[in-house]
């Protein structure tokens, strides 16, 4: 029995045509088998409905059965758990099959399948279904695959982050799973990365410091309102699909950006950093939480109408020694060649700054965005930067200069069409390793504090009135959905700092129907 051999096909063809289901031209790699278990035919324990359709004569001739649970691919990157039951005439033969498959699965467990997981559930994420999703859809799969879990239902925001940072006995686990949305994922990243740095004596406050990669993988069971990270790394936000990726022990490295202000660590970002338009949308929507999810559309429309621009200088370190560019037509997919080639070549801080060719762009910007992944989501299937890579050690810096409302609308609409959103005179995009933003008229923090109170009132009035032509001096940074308190920031990409229990988005077979042929009897 070989790992990738069409194991059951040969069993069926050679000896046991009494299968409940024909698998003509269908093979399952052992790496996608979840579990194998005996079926007690005599006692009538039939957890497979198809078993009952077996003619009596056949069950008598082949009374020994076993069931194999495996991953079956459905449409649009969805995975589901399927069972197939095999029948033998001899008990010894059945035992041989079960033992052989179990040996294969044990070998996989030794290599990369998790055996013990720490699970955090946010009961308040998305539609507040986190606990129910875990109990009904995920826990039974983990149990079937003999994965043991310690489950913590969070009691407040940052519970998971703080527990991971200090208390959690991480040595006991093979991975950390969060049940929630992007905010919950961000908590796990902050907890794990901070803990890893502390244990390795790395000072997070130094922007120049090379961070130590986390050894534990992170699984995301989507139960939030947007689930962008899940969508961009799996291709779908489906709890069962994500649980199956955890069980088979997938591993996808991912870059993480560190954000600093004045040599002080602010936050980590793994998807989008946005100043101007996306910062203003988030800041406005936070003030309108009472509106529920409708606030995003409302704030988006309002921010579009206000059309504020912000002056400043963006300096950046272009990633020059790489194969990919932000204008590529190819996409980051499972087994991505660019991530494997460019990622390991990029070492944070490996080149002294004076030898590097930093570029500077000054001007008035409607938006400054840094996309560390495509940021694709159901609303924008190609995302902010469709060719961005998960693990190449770079972020795509998108600068949208001041332009007319009409042109900005054209740019925004292109995110939802096939047209290139970067092919516009007022838009430029650079693939970078690091960047800084300094707003014009930037004052240090103490000066800002003095002026803050007086200005606040007027900037609030301006923000709330789309017709006001007076642009406030500063926007806010939207850091993966959280507002940052400072406009002047310094960002560095840390190549492959974390690993997820995914494999990246799999290429869709050209003809989906042929990939999963209907079962013939
Ligand atoms: N028990 C809790 N009570 C209140 N807030 C919590 C709790 N546990 C976690 N949180 C916070 O809730 C915030 C939102 O959670 P989460 O990301 O799971 O859902 P969401 O915001 O609906 O989804 P998305 O981030 O995908 O839009 C997170 O920032 C997290 O810090």
UniProtKB/TrEMBL annotation:
GO CC annotations on file: membrane
Q: What is this protein called?
A: DAGKc domain-containing protein
InterPro entries from the entry? ATP-NAD_kinase_N (IPR017438), CERK_C (IPR045363), CERK_PH (IPR057465), Diacylglycerol_kinase_cat_dom (IPR001206), Lipid_Phosphate_FormReg (IPR050187), NAD/diacylglycerol_kinase_sf (IPR016064)
Q: Which domain of life is it from?
A: Eukaryota
> Where does the record place the DAGKc domain?
112-263
Q: Which GO terms describe its molecular function?
A: ceramide kinase activity
Which GO BP terms sit in this record? ceramide metabolic process
């Amino acid at each position: 029995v070989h790992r990738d051999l069409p194991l059951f096909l040969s069993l069926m063809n050679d000896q046991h045509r009494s299968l409940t289901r024909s698998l003509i031209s269908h093979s399952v790699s052992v790496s996608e088998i979840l579990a194998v278990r005996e079926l007690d035919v005599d006692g009538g324990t039939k957890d497979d409905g198809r078993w009952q359709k077996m003619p009596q004569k056949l069950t008598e001739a082949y009374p020994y059965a076993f069931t194999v649970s495996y991953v079956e691919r459905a449409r649009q990157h969805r995975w589901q758990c399927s069972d197939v039951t095999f029948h033998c005439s001899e008990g010894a033969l059945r035992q041989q099959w079960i033992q052989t498959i179990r040996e294969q699965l044990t070998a996989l467990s030794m290599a990369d399948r998790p055996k013990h997981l720490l699970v955090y559930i946010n009961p308040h994420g998305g539609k507040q279904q986190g606990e129910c999703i875990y109990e009904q859809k995920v826990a039974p799969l983990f149990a079937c695959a003999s994965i043991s879990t310690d489950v913590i239902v969070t009691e407040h925001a940052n519970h998971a982050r703080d527990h991971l940072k200090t208390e959690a006995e991480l040595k006991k686990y093979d991975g950390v799973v969060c049940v929630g949305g992007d905010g919950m994922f961000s908590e796990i990243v902050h907890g794990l990365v901070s803990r890893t740095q502390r244990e390795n004596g790395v000072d997070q406050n130094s922007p120049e410091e090379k961070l130590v990669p986390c050894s534990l993988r992170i699984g995301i069971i989507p139960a939030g309102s947007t689930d962008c990270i899940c969508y961009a790394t799996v291709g779908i936000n489906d709890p069962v699909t994500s649980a199956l990726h955890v069980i088979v022990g997938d591993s996808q490295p991912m870059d993480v950006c560190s954000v600093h202000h004045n040599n002080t660590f602010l936050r980590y970002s793994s998807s989008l950093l946005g100043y101007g338009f996306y910062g203003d949308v988030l800041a406005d929507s936070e003030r309108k939480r009472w509106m529920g999810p409708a606030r995003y559309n409302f704030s988006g429309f309002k921010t579009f109408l206000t059309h504020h621009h912000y002056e400043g200088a963006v300096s950046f370190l272009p990633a020059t020694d790489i194969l990919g560019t932000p204008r590529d037509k190819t996409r980051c997919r499972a087994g991505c060649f660019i991530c494997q080639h460019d990622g390991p070549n990029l070492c944070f801080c490996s080149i002294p700054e004076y030898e590097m060719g930093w570029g500077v762009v000054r001007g008035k910007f409607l938006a400054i965005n840094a996309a560390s992944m495509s940021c694709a989501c159901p609303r924008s299937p190609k995302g902010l930067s469709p060719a961005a890579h998960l693990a190449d050690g770079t972020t795509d810096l998108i600068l949208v200069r001041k332009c007319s409302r009409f042109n900005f609308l054209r740019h925004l609409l292109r995110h939802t069409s096939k047209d290139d959103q970067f092919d516009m005179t007022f838009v430029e995009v650079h693939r970078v390793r690091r960047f800084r933003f300094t707003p014009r008229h930037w004052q240090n923090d103490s000066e800002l504090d003095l002026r803050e109170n007086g200005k606040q009132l007027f900037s609030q009035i301006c923000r709330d009135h789309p017709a006001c032509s007076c642009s406030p001096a500063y926007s806010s940074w939207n850091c993966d959905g959280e507002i940052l308190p400072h406009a002047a920031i310094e960002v560095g990409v840390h190549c492959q700092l974390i690993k997820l229990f995914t494999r990246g988005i799999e290429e869709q077979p050209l003809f989906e129907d042929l990939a999963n042929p209907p079962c013939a009897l």
